[in-house]
UniProtKB/TrEMBL annotation:
GO MF term list: metal ion binding
Keywords: Metal-binding, Zinc
Domain of life from the UniProt record: Eukaryota
Keyword Zinc recorded: yes
Gene Ontology CC annotations of this record: mitochondrial envelope; respiratory chain complex IV
Coiled-coil stretches: none
Entry keyword annotation includes Mitochondrion: no
CDD domains assigned to the protein according to its UniProt record, in alphabetical order: Cyt_c_Oxidase_Vb
Pfam families linked to this entry: COX5B
Name of this protein: Mitochondrial cytochrome c oxidase subunit 5B isoform 2
Biological processes annotated in GO: mitochondrial electron transport, cytochrome c to oxygen
Binding-site positions, Zn(2+): 118, 120, 140, 142
Gene name, Swiss-Prot/TrEMBL: COX5B-2
Amino acid sequence: MSSYISRLLKAQSASKRLISNLTQRDGKLSSLLRRLGLQWQGAAATPQQRPISTTQVQKSALIADDQLVTGIQKREMLLAKQGCEDPWGFTKVIRRGSGRENDPTVVPSAFDARLVGCLCLDDRLPKWMWIEKDEGPKRCECGHYFILKNVPPV
């Protein structure tokens, strides 16, 4: 045991941490270290509760969410208050129209292009295609035509 303590005294970098870990335990080794004067003089030697400071918060001091949000999230919250639960139209499926070249299915978009999936005939998976803004009607493999309609953003 004395060789361990002598090696512990010679070590410079890890000695403080090792000594603090050893002195926290109750037993013969910690009492021996205390007698040799190797007890760490920090907070680890005497375990104490850390003081916690709390401040009361008044409900009038809290700020509502609608005053903090900005940008797209604010527009979404305002639309939700007006009753529009799906401002982006994610849940709405666009049904194919007649799909002829002179009467294509209109796909709304606030951007210059949109990815569209067409469920052709008896296929299980959609056929995906990009529809561009200034292009004419785009034809799917099944023969249906689609065109992009510009709508204002949310």
